[in-house]
Design goal:
With about 260 residues, the protein is an alpha/beta fold. An eight-stranded parallel β-barrel has the order 1-2-3-4-5-6-7-8, surrounded by five helices. Helix 7 links the parallel strand 7 and strand 8. The longest helix has 24 residues. The two termini are about 30 Å apart.
């Protein structure tokens, strides 16, 4: 039986607790989530690891912007990996590119080796590569165990067919996780088109919710962000299982 995996990207202790309560398999912890994320402070890593029992993956990214890092930034990434390990993280998400946006195999491989025995995901720096098929082989060569991708597109829905192509090319040599703009509204179509068994999302709502008044004319207290996140996550995981079962169900015999 295929095991489905949902990783929730969070930047706070409240969201991490909601991730566990909502049924996430793993947390990716970062800071600056709205700007694509950087490495979170070590005190937050420690607090989240101590607060939840599910695995915590830490984003290793020293700054916003380009994924072509200077020697000083590369050394900082090594220190961030060590801090994540000592804080109790189970995994890290990282990646380095060359100035022409191809995967920097030697330096990424060095980071992957430094991270062991933590598991490693090569993050969406991959989506900047000029040739995704070649970049997949490069990521496999780094030793990373998982690739997070939107298929080189701004979001997973528009890149879903390419994600499916990458999954087939990988042939089990690396796990493919779809992420980037994944929402409840597009989850079913993404799974149908890509065939992935691993999803990654922050489930950030585009708009807030204004609750309706209840029967006594008094407006109920609005749900907290953590309650909203937990509810959305439960729905997302339910949809994920339903859609995957529909996609993989054997065809009914013809009458």
């Amino acid at each position: 039986m295929t095991s489905l995996f949902f990783e929730l990207c969070v930047e706070s202790l409240e969201a991490a607790r909601a991730a566990q309560a909502g049924g996430a398999n793993q947390i990716e912890l970062c800071a600056g989530l709205s700007d694509s994320g950087v490495t979170p402070p070590v005190d937050l890593i420690t607090a989240v690891v101590q607060a939840v029992s599910i695995p915590v993956s830490v984003l290793i990214r020293p700054r916003f912007g380009s994924f072509a890092f200077t020697p000083e930034e590369f050394a900082l990434m090594g220190r961030q990996i060590e801090l994540a390990r000592h804080a109790g993280a189970a995994a890290v998400a990282l990646g380095a590119l060359l100035p022409d946006h191809r995967v920097d195999i030697p330096r990424t491989r060095e980071l992957v080796e430094q991270a062991r025995p933590m598991s490693v995901t090569f993050h969406r720096a991959f989506d900047e590569a000029p040739d995704l098929s070649a970049a997949l082989e490069d990521v496999i060569a780094t030793g990373a165990g998982c690739l997070l991708t939107s298929g080189g597109s701004p979001d997973v829905l528009s890149g879903a067919a390419t994600i499916g192509d990458l999954r087939r090319q990988a042939r089990g040599r690396i796990r493919i996780m779809a992420g980037g703009g994944l929402r409840l509204q597009n989850l079913a179509e993404v799974v149908h088109r890509s065939g992935v068994t691993m999803l990654h999302s922050s489930l950030i709502r585009a708009n807030g919710i204004t609750p309706n008044a209840n029967g006594d004319g008094l407006a109920p207290l609005p749900p907290t962000p953590g309650q909203l996140l937990q509810s959305d996550l439960r729905e997302a995981i339910y949809l994920f299982h339903q859609v995957f079962q529909e996609r993989t169900a054997p065809a009914s015999p013809a009458d």
